[in-house]
Design goal:
This protein is an alpha/beta fold and 539 residues long. 53% of the residues lie in helices and 11% in strands. It has 21 helices and 12 strands. The longest helix has 28 residues.
Length: 539
Amino acid sequence: MAAAFGFATSIATSTPSNPNLRPLAVSCPQLQTFYKPLNNRRASALNQSLRVRCESVSQNLNSIDKEELKRSSAMALAQLKASAIDRYTKEKSSIIVIGLNVHTAPVDVREKLAIQEAQWPQAIRELCALNHIEEAAVLSTCNRIEVYVVALSQHRGVKEVTEWMSKISGVSVSELCQHRFMLYNKDATRHLFEVASGLNSIVLGEGQILAQVKQVKKLGQGVDGFNKKIGGLFEHAIITGKRVRTETNISSGSVSVSSAAVELALMKLPESSYATTRVLVIGAGKMGKLVIKHLAAKGCKEMVVVNRTEEKVALIREELKDIQIIYKPLSEMMACAAEADVIFTSTASDTPLFLKEHAQTLPVDTEMGRRLFIDISVPRNVGPCVSDLETAEVYNVDDLKDIVAANKEDRLRKAMEAQIIISEELEHFEAWKDSLEAVPTIKKLRAYLERIRASELDKCLSKMGDITDKQKKAIYDLSMGMMKKFLHGPMQHLRCDGRSDCQKPEEMLEIMHAVNRMFDLETEIISDTVRTKMERIKK
């Protein structure tokens, strides 16, 4: 027998003595244990048979309908998005921020990505139409463009959002990758809290960014895609920003970008005074109004304001009655610019208001020697080519970094105080987010008790016969009151607003299991995340 057959432990690892027999990459117990020497004719026939079978399998695979595969993939993704497990499990859905800001990207890149406030709801809808994005929000200011999402997959979510940003801006994906930053889960949350607190701004503690974060929440409400997690994230960011400003002195000496613009211009003036300086402000919107107010605070008693309409300028004039504010329409902008020493621009124009050919025709005051353009708009109102002129000095939002050079030690101290508050609020948010794990159990328990209440109420009313509506209401109110009392205890332990004494992850898991067992709710408990946290704590 041993002479007739060659013994081998595995064809895949043994070298047969017969050169005509080649190892076969197939899973077969008989072939993995024995082989029989083959002559040349039999080996050739076997090889031919294998080639025919391989070609047959290949043809069958190629014949599969590609459209059917696409439809199957789309259905699978739809099921993934609708799955309760994925919706409430942070291991599979992550909070991600992808963005560019003044610290990572120059203004000529950021301005291409700028999204006007009116377009934020549409941006949310477009982002949530992507395959792996559940929720979204957009924060777009002169210093940053940041996209916050809840993604089913980190890698695929980042890829889809980056491609979307490239599509709306015309900036290539490769260029975006050079300037973007990405943060996940706790890091993303901390970043937004720091942004809302003014710690990520050019001017430490500036107040305007908190108003812009509030605007994100305001415009997002009611938009499909600005849901529980993203809405809660921005709500906690607003609370954090308010606490930081109330409990520290972070705003003292450090104000908005518009204030820094006024201070920068003041530093560049020959006598560091607005007393005799001819000032022109183009744009009377939010930023323009702040520029005018800060100019008044710095001693500017007279200025010309160019705006599309006079209505907003008249309101500002009423507010600053001691300041002479002269309104001019946009059609007279160039004539007003010719008579100004300092020009502040803050409009939402998509195209530059001043180009090189415009600026070089403007006469220059002999004492100043050049004209100052302070452009705090994104996209820029003053073309970068204007800075090539010897008679013009151009500054944009990126140049405002120079303003915050003073008081570095005090700035760091305030930032450290703010970080303590941010850490506290971060823990509150994480506790609130953990409580979302209990949502399926809460819904099932409420529905279970409601069915019992409604059933018992019907039985009671049917036995009582003819009673008045007032009596029916009293019995109904009694049943509702009892149900609320029954729910109070379990709900108190399952819910968490992030500020009361919340359960630890392992405790919440035990309570969820206990409630499901006691009431036979058959709820699919989303416990993977909680278990993961418990394992991390033990390590």
